[in-house]
Amino acid sequence: MKTRKAVLGSVLLQAHLKLKEIKDGGRIVRQGGAFGDAKNDTEIRADKVLGAFIRDRLAEIAMPGRIFVEGVSETGEVRGPPPLTDFYVDPLDGSLNYMTRGPTTGLPHGGCITMTHPVPGRETLFGHIMAAGIVDYRTGELWLSEYTADSAWSGGDDSSFFTEFFPTPPACAVAARTDRREKLDPGAMVVICEMYYASNRARVEKMFRDHPKGWFRNPGSAAYEMALVSTGQAAAYICDQQKHHELGAGYALVKGAGGVVVDFEGEPYDSRPHSFNSQSPVILAANQAIADQILELLRKAG
After folding, report:
1. What is the Cα 84 distance to its own chain's centre?
2. Cβ neighbours of 198 (radius 10 Å)
3. Which of 91, 85, 86 is nearest to 69 (CA)?
């Protein structure tokens, strides 16, 4: 029987191959009413096609449940009888990067799936996440995380998540591990700051104003950026309006690699509600020491 992680990895790799087949993928489907799309509130064809493709693959090979797909079925399509498993899908994160791709590998664009076992009669929490995966559509590289405890309802314990990185080709997995350094030094480590939102740009500029130099990055795909924290390539990710359909996957990957996920008050995300179309302030950090230093900079910035 396939593990939860293997199911998500299989679907994401199929989506990677599917994207290569889509013709006119940058063509506009419709204007207006989209949630976090590329530019001018438009949606692209590839996002719709991939979303429907991933939804159908999950319905075919996974256990019964509700499938929430950004841009396709955001109310959740019920597949099969209870007990339900909820799947949260962002089929194409980094749409602008995909639309502007050229003859090189281009800027990152990927997809992510988060799998939860909601507790009957209660709202779903981040601590109910059981598995998650992110794929880099340019290369097919995978980041996969799974909650390894026996109980499907416990969740939330850092030591019970395990994250692996599967390079291209995915011949062997590498256990993901966050950066072990405990002193925040933007001149010697990469800090990813979400620059899409003006409020976050202003806050980040104020936070790091006194740093004489620093490697601040925003590649343009939140799922990919959060995955980089899980493999130690970035020390932290900072965003004041992160969408939950990506954040669930980032949460599982970073925690499974030994990192921490907190809000702008320093509270862990474990017991926070995980709602598909919500947005929340978040810091994903390599370790608690790095998170604490970022929080102090936030407090000073006001």
Report:
1. 22
2. 8
3. 91
Is the pLDDT at 72 greater than 80, yes or no?
A: no
In this predicted structure, the answer to whether residue 172 has a pLDDT above a threshold of 90 is no
- Record the pTM: 0.91
Contact between 200 and 240 under an 8 Å Cβ cutoff? The reply is: yes
296 vs 33: which has the higher pLDDT: 296
Round to whole Å and give the CA distance between 277 and 7.
24
Please tell me the number of Cα atoms within 13 Å of 190 on its side-chain side: 17
155-170 burial, b at 16+ Cβ within 10 Å, e below that, comes to bbeeebbbbbbbeeee
End-to-end, the C-alpha distance of the chain in Å comes to 51
The pLDDT score that the predictor gives to residue 80 is: 55
What's the CA gap between 231 and 215, in Å, rounded? 17
